[in-house]
Write a structure and sequence with these properties.
By secondary structure, this protein is mostly helical. It has 4 helices and 3 strands; from the N terminus they run βββαααα. The chain has helices spanning 48-60, 77-95, 102-116, 118-134; strands spanning 10-13, 17-20, 42-43.
């Protein structure tokens, strides 16, 4: 799907490379941006030095255990909406320096965000994180 039809739009080279044919210009292809797979092939003309640099870089990347975690807020939608409204009402004025007494402003923000249900959101998120990491 990314390179077209083998033998028509590209020719496979080994298990992981390809060369384009004269008909590859007629195949618009499929963008492989963020589509990483062991099935991907690399253009045979791509410099080996660049591949080596990429391999070294990929081997040094730290993958955070939660990088693919997605929070499902279905059970706390009301609280998420409430916290969002509190952030608009109390946090943004603090951020922009509109509130003169910062300590009082932070105290009020914390009071309002707690009343809005932040602790319920945190508990639900922690529950989901624990389940995710247990897999």
């Amino acid at each position: 799907m990314m390179y077209g039809i083998a033998g028509t739009h590209y020719e496979p080279v080994g298990d992981d490379k390809y060369t384009s044919t004269d008909k590859s210009a007629n195949y618009t292809g499929f963008s492989n941006w963020s589509f990483n797979s062991s099935l991907n092939r690399q253009d045979a003309s791509f410099p080996q030095e660049a591949s080596d640099l990429l391999n070294v870089w990929e081997s040094t990347v730290y993958h955070y255990p939660l990088e693919t975690f997605v929070f499902n807020n279905a059970s706390v939608k009301t609280e998420v909406a409430n916290v969002s409204n509190v952030m608009l009402r109390y946090a943004i004025p603090l951020e922009y320096g509109v509130i003169k007494d910062i300590d009082q402003g932070i105290a009020e923000l914390n009071k309002q965000i707690k009343a809005a249900g932040i602790e319920k959101i945190q508990a639900e998120m922690q529950r989901q994180i624990d389940a995710f990491l247990a897999k």
